[in-house]
From TrEMBL:
Keywords: Endoplasmic reticulum, Glycosyltransferase, Membrane, Phosphoprotein, Signal-anchor, Transferase, Transmembrane, Transmembrane helix. Pathway: Protein modification; protein glycosylation. Its EC number is 2.4.1.142. It comes from Phascolarctos cinereus (Koala). It catalyses: an N,N'-diacetylchitobiosyl-diphospho-di-trans,poly-cis-dolichol + GDP-alpha-D-mannose = a beta-D-Man-(1->4)-beta-D-GlcNAc-(1->4)-alpha-D-GlcNAc-diphospho-di-trans,poly-cis-dolichol + GDP + H(+). This is Chitobiosyldiphosphodolichol beta-mannosyltransferase. It is an enzyme of class 2 (transferase).
Length: 463
């Protein structure tokens, strides 16, 4: 009796699966791509750029991800791009940690399977951002099998290495995530990755062939004209004191920020003599970025100014959202700095490129959990011809060329020395920062759409 019951159950499952495949493949097909991001769509610039490039080439795009930060206006206004927001599945606060994590993964898998099968049109491709790949790789592969689509994985990093920052790399959960990522990663039809180092590691240790598609800046990352800079500084000054003028103009009709001044009669904007230098960093406030390095370097920079060094005062802007923001905010609030002001705003998508295009120097503290990905923030800074000081890790040389387009440092002391060197003779027209900026301007970098046309589009049309 038991055996016949089991046989009936298996038969029902088999018939149900066949009906599901038949139904999925009978659905009307369109020339479309579903981009899956199990994260905040607005904070996933590379996947937004994929969506825009696909839409420009005639694909209908469904961009599936979490609601959060506002995406770029161009993406929101595109008639070919539909953003499908899904809810983030939370852990149940019951039972052991492993049990909570397992229930969350299963719930995510069921929810994602339901969404992809019933709420998105079957198309040519599912383009998946990894990480996170658990459980999305397996789910997307199953949907592709049912619908006759092809699975493309865009490897930004390894999910298990990010998990390892929190739990340690020997933790059973991390080892399970590594095994899953390595096994399911081979199910894809096409793989993209962000560096040659990652491409070589995927081939050698994962038996996965991938194509390197370097991050490139979008067209809106560029130098910001002085008039737009002034408008941005005045706007930010309403909320953030470091952008406000420290002294009133002699003529009360003039409009002044901490950096610029507008003559209302001629409408001419000029930079203030003796203005502070503007240093910018951006972050997700996670464990792979140690901002104590920058804070220690700024304290040393402050001491040099107090000792009489010919250095400008600084406004340091650290943008972003993330779990460690409050932690570092408390540290910053306890710092006693007279010549350095620090603020940590969250900028709208349209204001962030304008800020980078207005800054004097960028600082990057991203230290890859795997050693194989590159920081998108530096790509954006270079698009604005903004020189960068970046902390060293394994494949950083694929992006930052030391003493050509910026500087590479190992610790807070080396960063402090670089800040001192770069900001010495700040008002001179031939200082080191301006030489780096000139090198970036003359390099004539490819933009994302041009690079995508050369690399990704041929792969999609011939796969």
């Amino acid at each position: 009796m038991a055996a016949s019951s089991v046989a009936l159950v298996l038969l029902a499952v088999a018939l149900g699966s066949l009906l599901l495949v038949w139904w999925a493949r009978r659905r009307p097909r369109v020339r479309s791509v579903c981009i899956v991001v199990l994260g905040d769509v607005g904070r996933s610039p590379r996947m937004q750029y994929h969506a825009l490039s696909l839409a420009r080439r005639g694909f209908d795009v469904t961009l599936l991800g979490y609601r959060g930060s506002r995406p770029h206006d161009e993406l929101l206004s595109s008639k070919r791009i539909h953003i499908l927001h899904v809810s983030e599945v939370s852990r149940i606060p019951v039972g052991p940690h492993m049990f909570q994590y397992g229930v969350k993964v299963v719930s995510q898998a069921v929810y994602l399977l339901y969404t992809l099968l019933l709420k998105t049109p079957p198309g040519d491709y599912i383009l998946l951002q990894n990480p996170p790949g658990l459980p999305s790789i397996a789910v997307c592969w199953a949907v592709c099998c049912l619908c006759g689509s092809k699975l493309v994985i865009d490897w930004h990093n390894y999910g298990y290495t990010i998990l390892g920052l929190t739990h340690g790399f020997s933790h059973p959960l991390v080892q399970l995530a590594k095994w899953y990522e390595k096994l399911c990663g081979r199910l894809s039809d096409l793989n993209l990755c962000v560096t040659n180092a990652m491409r070589e590691d995927l081939a050698k240790n994962w038996n996965i062939r991938a194509v390197t598609v370097y991050d490139k800046p979008a067209s809106f990352f560029k130098n910001t004209p002085l008039e737009i800079q002034h408008q941005l500084f005045m706007k930010l000054g309403y909320t953030y004191p470091p952008f406000r003028a420290s002294t009133e103009p002699l003529d009360p009709a003039f409009e002044r920020s901490a950096f610029t001044e507008l003559n209302p009669r001629s409408r001419e904007v000029t930079q203030l003599d003796g203005r502070p230098a503007l240093l910018v960093s951006s972050t997700s406030w996670t464990e792979d970025e140690d901002f104590s390095i920058l804070l220690k370097a700024l304290e040393r920079f402050e001491q040099w100014i107090l000792d009489g060094a010919n250095l400008p005062s600084l406004v340091c802007v650290i943008t972003g959202k993330g779990p460690l923001k409050e932690h570092y905010g408390q540290i910053i609030s306890q710092m006693c700095l007279k010549h350095i002001q620090i603020c940590t705003p969250w900028l709208e998508a349209e204001d962030y490129p304008l800020l980078l295009g207005s800054a004097d120097l960028g600082v990057c503290l991203h230290k890859s959990s795997s050693g194989f990905d590159l920081p998108m923030k530096v790509v954006d800074m270079f698009g604005c011809c903004l020189p960068v000081c970046a902390i060293h890790f394994q494949c950083l040389h694929e992006l930052v060329k030391h003493e050509v387009n910026g500087m590479v440092f190992m610790d807070s002391e080396e960063l402090a020395d670089q800040l001192k060197m770069l900001f010495s003779e700040f008002s001179s027209p031939d200082n080191r920062l301006k030489q780096f900026r000139k090198n970036l301007t003359e390099s004539k970098q490819l933009r994302w759409d041009e690079s995508w046309e050369r690399t990704v589009f041929p792969l999609l049309t011939h796969s």
